Amino acid sequence: MSAALDPRTRRLLEGPIVPTLLRLGAPNVLVMLAQAAVGLIETWFVGRLGTEALAGMSLVFPVVMLMQMTSAGAMGGGIASAIARALGARRKADADALVLHALLIAVLFGLLFMGVVLTGGRWLYASMGGTGAALEAALTYSNWVFAGAIVVWIFNSLSAVLRGTGNMAVPAIVTVGGLLVLVPLSPLLIFGWGPVRGMGIAGGAAALLAYYLLGSLILGAYLWAGKSVLRPSLRGQALRWPLFADILRVGLAGTVSTVATNLAIGITTALVGSFGTAAIAGYGTGARLEYLLVPLVFGLGAPLVAMVGTCIGAGQRERALRATWAGAALSFAMAETIGLLAAAFPHAWLSLFDADPAMQAAGAQYLRAVGPFYGFFGLGLVLYFASQGAGRLFWPVTGNVLRLAVAAIGGWLALKFGGGLLLVFLAQALALLVYGSVNAAAIAGGAWFGQVGWPRRTSALLARLHGMPGS
Predict the structure, then answer these.
(1) Are residues 424 and 272 in contact, defined by beta-carbon separation less than 8 angstroms?
(2) Per-residue pLDDT tens for 115-158?
């Protein structure tokens, strides 16, 4: 017999779309801002160690973000989507069982990231242009972070489990509360104080791992205390391949997309590396703002995964599409506003991290060229999250692969024919335009499940977006 609907699930199926997305997205944006602040706090403190340390951290940053985006966005989206669709279809027992399957996936992927980066880090960062003190700083930071990769994966997977139920508040509280530990701990371990000896750049990594470990313990305690919609168990539960597959078919496709995103940044870092260490630091610092958009858009994307997945599980396809376009409009507006401000005032951002003139010049060139196209990045990214909820990721992955091709080939051609940094960055801008446009065109063209009936009059469409009577 099918289970009764939980109030959170009912809200996803019946609540007014835009207010529900905003209400669920508000704590999620807060949690993502807090996670972004984790990286920015670290960068600010490491920047006090010098340009070489900042360049070293810039070399590692795309790899760390690959792990973050894979665990929280790609595989995390697969976890949230699977749980949301199970709850929408009133398969409560499957939703409970998915928690254990999600944690096993997290441990395996954490071990994979640990092994690959610890053994291949020197080659990787040298290939991206790292030399001398910058390369050694990169290796020190990287080895510390990826030695604790499993902790990062478990934290993000537990957060995804809760988001799949429509619970955005608890991950937000845990993440923001963790900042109260991280803010004093990071400088303490980096610079030392009193009897505590400074660890340099390794101290930032140690503080980061402490943050994720504490958060994982709190999230796990919440789930197993019976306070969630779910009632997970680690004992007496048979593992079932269909449940692994339900997560992996979305998560692995999302991983391809995530790899393409970070590979585009990594390749550009390597291209910029031919202009020197200061250029790497400038581009890496500027690109951090682009990465900051990921958690901001994820703030809306996570409830969109839950809403779209729950609606599709319940057979409400048209509502799933209305929610998708509402989220797309909000994300485009937010990302484009940030991009235009960054292009107009690049030094307001860059000067937070380093005062080196060469670093500032390279970073400003990047923000002025790419910032005006951030809206398309926000558009493509939120449609990727919506597609996770729908379990249809062919076009988001294709769009991201095309982005990678345009960025890599365009940047390479710019250098081959004597172009400077500006042309390399313009290739990045064009790549973002392609990414957003391909995703939007595909979904508008019926890539999920063909054309769904739409209201013909604008007033009726607005009424449907807001879930008003008459829809």
Answers:
(1) yes
(2) 999 999 999 998 877 888 888 988 999 999 999 999 999 999 99
Q: Exposure of 239 by Cβ count < 10 A (0-12 exposed, 13-18 middle, 19+ buried)?
A: exposed
The string over 125-141, giving b where at least 16 C-beta atoms fall within 10 Å of a residue's C-beta and e elsewhere, is beebbbeeebbbbbbbb
User: Could you identify the residue written with the tokens 């969109």?
Assistant: 304
447 vs 88, 251, 394, 396, 441, CA distance in Å?
Answer: 22, 19, 9, 10, 9
DSSP string for residues in 240-298: -HHHHHHHHHHHHHHHHHHHHHHHHHHHHHHHHHTT-HHHHHHHHHHHHHHHHHHHHHH
Q: How buried is 262 (Cβ within 10 angstroms: 0-12 exposed, 13-18 middle, 19+ buried)?
A: buried
Residue of 346, 37, 341, 363 whose CA lies nearest to 172: 37
User: What is the sign, positive or negative, of the torsion defined by CA atoms of 224, 230, 236, 241?
Assistant: negative
Tokens of 123: 């080659």
Contact partners, residue 431, CB within 8 Å, separation at least 6: 264, 402, 403, 404, 406, 407, 410
DSSP-assigned letter for residue 197: E
Q: Phi/psi of residue 355, each to 5°?
A: -105, 5
**Within its chain, how far is the Cα of 467 from the centroid?**
29
From CA 231, how far away is CA 238, in angstroms rounded? 15
Give, as one character, the DSSP assignment of residue 70. Answer: I
Task: Answer yes or no: are the C-beta atoms of 386 and 319 closer than 8 Å.
Answer: no
CB 282 within 8 A of CB 51: no
Calpha distance 193→210 (Å, rounded): 18
- What residues contact 303, with CB distance under 8 A and at least 6 apart? 20, 21, 24, 25, 28, 163, 166, 168
Question: Rounded distance, CA 262 to CA 235, Å?
Answer: 38
For 78-184, strand residue ranges (E) read: none
Lowest mean pLDDT among 18-27, 425-434, 449-458: 449-458
Helix (H) or strand (E) holding 193: strand 192-193
The pTM for the full model equals 0.69
